[in-house]
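Sat 14:20. Reprocessing the chain from the morning session after the first attempt stalled halfway. Input below, unchanged.
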Amino acid sequence: MAEVITMPRLSDTMTDGKVAKWHKKVGDAVKEGDILAEIETDKAVQDFEAEVNGTLLFIGTEEGSSAPVDSVLAIIGQQGEDISSLKGGASADTSPAEAAGIPEENKTEDNVTDVETTKPVEKESESAPAEIPAGTEVINMPRLSDTMSEGKVAKWHKNVGDQVKEGDILAEIETDKAVQDFESEFNGTLLYQGVQEGGATPVDMILAIIGPAGTDVSGITSGGAPKAKATESKTAANTETKPAETATEQPKADSPSGDRLAVSPLAKKMAEDKGIDLNALHGSGENGRIVKRDIENYSPSQSQTQSKPQAQNQPIPQPVFYGETTETQNSQMRNIIAKRLAESKFTAPHYYLMVEVMMDKAVQARTEINAIPDTKISFNDMVIKAVAMALRKHPQVNSSWAGDKIIHHGNINVGVAVAVPDGLVVPVLKNTDQMNYNQISAAVKDMASRAKNKGLKANEMEGSTFSVSNLGMFGIETFTSIINQPNSAILSVGAIVEKPVVKDGQIVVGNTMMLSLACDHRVIDGATGAQFLQTLKMYLEQPLTLLL
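Finished this time. Tokens:
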């Protein structure tokens, strides 16, 4: 009989999983222990093994796609076995009617649904879209900033019936950041205003229509969508908006010879942003007016062939190079990190305690320990050991908030934050207080190495009761961290810094390190957190006390 394999819960915080890679395809023979697929969770990528023998009959989640925990991942059974009742949803060989639960014999044109959207297929609209009359241009509300969703017309500079020339200011548009002059890119008559002065409309809705005088545009303005694609208004090359000039007269720039250059306000601002000398341009607008198009099409080589003679010793504009803006799809790990950290920051009331630790004796102790053959420990290993011992003396810090109760953990399991290419993972040292320096050092090195190669198992990143984050190796002297829930505290460890300190009334050179403890105030009171730090400071400043 066929077996349904569901998306496994590979970590305690996992809600869905992504199939990074399938190792078997439909029709392949599968044996118990074979790797079916690689599943990417919120913490790592893990191999998922088959627990039954048979043939892979169905794949419920395609490679690169995600599915919730307990949803159908695959079906394994005997070759040719009927599994239609086990799929639990549409598959590659499931008809749209079957996916909607409609018997094959009852299928009609009206009840066929779209499999991808699970919504009824809409019939083609009976009303034909409006035609745009020849020579007429539809101008939409432009997107003048990267966060703009709608624009408000602060002022119209042209009224219906007015003649409009390319480069004329049509209106002043108020965005979420500033007020900007909006120029026409066409010649003609203003036939229609889609927004009244003081009114607002969403981006890409009709702002105005320009065309030959007397043109009937009622078919466009009555709500019908234009048949031809409406001309989209282009935005300034620099998306960071600046306060607009509101003067209605066309601003002009001085040339070296004392002449006045005709230039539109937007073109002038774009030239300033790009560092372009307006004297190096010949305007393509009416009467040689410099407009936005001239700035967009400008290249530094033009200054040699098109520019007017420049005054002696005038700086030559240098080319401006812009980097390419790209997008990267979030990995499953990155999405979960964002979700968990946001939940922690906004649900747990964080407060922070900081203390400076004298590390002179710790430096000496580490040097002596590392002189022992086959021994190599780091300061981070010493901090982890001291943390574990301090937690034993302050069990309240080794606790978790659970709504109507506080869980006091019997074991001390320290999570160690490790940076990986996709984000951050926290492998856990179980029963850390019972480990010696060599064991801690070996475990941290092993887990950190496997974390960067996505070789950690889910159970190696679960069950932490306290976390440590160390950025000292990057030269960071002090910082604060977000609590790794369900922990109630996290320790941030800075770099060891050599600096002047006062000892016995004398200024001497000493080694100091800053520690920052982030606490969940629901579980750890300020005095409790301070006492924990006090004990930790004693262990690090007097390493021999760890033996007591």
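The first strand starts at residue 3 and ends at 6.
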